Amino acid sequence: GIDLAMGIPLAILITRSENKKVAAVLDTLVNVPLVVPTAALGFSLGLFWADVNIGSFMLLVFAHVAFTYPLVVRNVAGAIEGVDPALEETARTLGEKPFGVYKRILYPLTKASILAGAIMAFTRSLGETGATLAVVSSAKTAPVYIVNLVKGDTPNLYVAALACMVLIGVSFAAIL
After folding, report:
1. For the chain, give me the number of helices (H) and strands (E)?
2. pTM for this one?
3. What mean pLDDT comes out for the span 14-24?
4. How far apart are CA 102 and CA 118, in angstroms?
């Protein structure tokens, strides 16, 4: 939800901004979390938020949003670039407000890409260990549980394999 709330307006701003320099800078900044290792991203977020008492859960949410929202932005921006701006301009000249233009023009034409971005963000977040452990080392997410099953003096590979199959099944269901 947070990814969509942040990603869709940012995609619109990047693709429809009249200031091309600002759009280019925003586009570049959106790509940074895609190329930075998630463990490094999580560690830097942990350092940044260390003095703010926001709680482990919120810190974990911030970390996952930081590396998943670019997937929404990239998908939605690509779809918006394929929409003729004249359709939006026509709606505006007929008196439609900006949200109405989005609701009646952009959303119907880009909803498949919005859904694809949301699914990609969800499945990417579902399988993340690096940022999770870097931000909240005591977190007990499914991927961290699997890592803990595999490492140590007595690894439980059978339970780890079963947990992997469940995680893969959930990811497959989300994509399907």
Report:
1. 10, 0
2. 0.84
3. 93
4. 18
